[in-house]
């Protein structure tokens, strides 16, 4: 699975979560310092006032010296060696939350997963373009620590990509006749998945590591087909999100994600599946809808048997 440069959309249409996955040619300590050291932040992000080093510390980020209103404020919500979370306040917007998680990249360096959870949809596209510019500037800073990279056409391309991804997607809501914990295990454990996922084939391989940044993979070698990705949110037993990379004889998909939500409902579970991707028309969504409906029917049958 590719983990070097991905964008993905989670959340709901009214409260989108933007996800960016980037690999940097630096160790985790160096990347973390670039995310928290005000002197280095000024080289790729903006001038940060305050010293947000502990939970509860506040800060002010001046993103443009040419615009007095181009200022964000926030507070540190989580500050660990491999994860940082801050509140994000911008004039005229509802407060949101930005989370940065660091992990060792599979081929060396550090993988940064940045998630921006918004409480309104109007600004998702602009934030998508803006963050991609900043994250590109961060990469350039490691190559040339003295300055910020030129931004030619980066933001325009990113905004167009986020406009497409936020304008597509599918959602299915299904009642599963089993408790939430049972349905959760059916998705989040290898044993649970083996009971129903692609169980009409005899050679299916399933590997899961259900933790943020952990990998998942299912393959059917006889069909020359594989799907997998990395987990982004693991909130047992309420929410499970992950990137989705489908590979078959025609190639591989990219920048797709799945958001699963589990809610107790009567004698069972209301399962909501949201699948998003950079789809420019309705055909991929319709194809995935048919696939999900077929696969979830197998889940119902396995749970009922």
List keywords for this structure.
Alpha-D-Glucose-1,6-Bisphosphate, Chain A, domain 4; single chain; 305 residues; eight-stranded antiparallel β-sheet; alpha+beta; 28% helix
Might you state the CATH topology name of the largest domain? Alpha-D-Glucose-1,6-Bisphosphate, Chain A, domain 4
Q: Characterize the overall form.
A: globular
Strand content: 35-45%
Estimate the helix proportion, in percent: 25-40%
Secondary-structure class: alpha+beta
The name of the CATH superfamily of the largest domain reads START domain
Q: What is the residue-mean pLDDT, rounded to a whole number? A: 92
Oligomer: single chain
The CA-CA distance between the termini, in Å, is 34 Å
| Main sheet specs | 8 strands, antiparallel
Count of extended strands? 16
Look at the structure and give the CATH class of the largest domain. Answer: Alpha Beta
Number of domains: 2
């Amino acid at each position: 699975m590719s983990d070097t440069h991905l964008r993905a959309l989670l959340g709901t249409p009214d409260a989108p979560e933007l996800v960016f996955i980037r690999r940097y040619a630096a160790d985790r300590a160096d990347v973390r310092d670039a995310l928290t050291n005000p002197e280095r932040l000024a080289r790729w992000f903006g001038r940060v006032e305050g010293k947000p080093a502990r939970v509860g510390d506040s800060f002010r980020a001046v993103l443009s010296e040419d615009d007095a209103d181009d200022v964000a404020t926030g507070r540190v919500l989580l500050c660990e060696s491999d994860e940082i979370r801050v509140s994000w306040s911008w004039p005229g917007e509802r407060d949101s939350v930005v989370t940065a998680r660091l992990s060792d990249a599979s081929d060396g360096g550090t993988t940064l997963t940045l998630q921006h959870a918004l409480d309104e949809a109007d600004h998702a596209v602009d934030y998508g373009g803006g963050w991609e510019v900043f994250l590109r500037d961060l990469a350039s800073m490691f190559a040339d620590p003295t300055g910020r990279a030129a931004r030619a056409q980066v933001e325009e391309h990113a905004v167009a990509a986020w406009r497409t991804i936020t304008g597509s997607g599918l959602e299915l809501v299904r009642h599963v006749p089993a408790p939430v914990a049972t349905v959760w295990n059916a998705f989040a454990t290898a044993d649970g998945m083996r009971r129903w996922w692609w169980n009409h084939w005899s050679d299916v391989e399933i590997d899961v590591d259900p933790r943020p940044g952990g990998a998942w993979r299912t393959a059917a070698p006889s069909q020359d087909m594989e799907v997998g990705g990395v987990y982004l949110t693991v909130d047992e037993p309420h929410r499970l999100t992950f990137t989705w990379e489908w590979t078959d004889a025609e190639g591989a998909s990219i920048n797709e994600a799945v958001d699963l939500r589990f809610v107790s409902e009567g004698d069972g579970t209301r399962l909501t599946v949201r699948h998003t991707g950079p789809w420019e028309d309705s055909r991929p969504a319709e194809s995935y809808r048919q696939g999900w409906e077929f696969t979830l029917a197998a889940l119902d049958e396995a749970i009922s048997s």
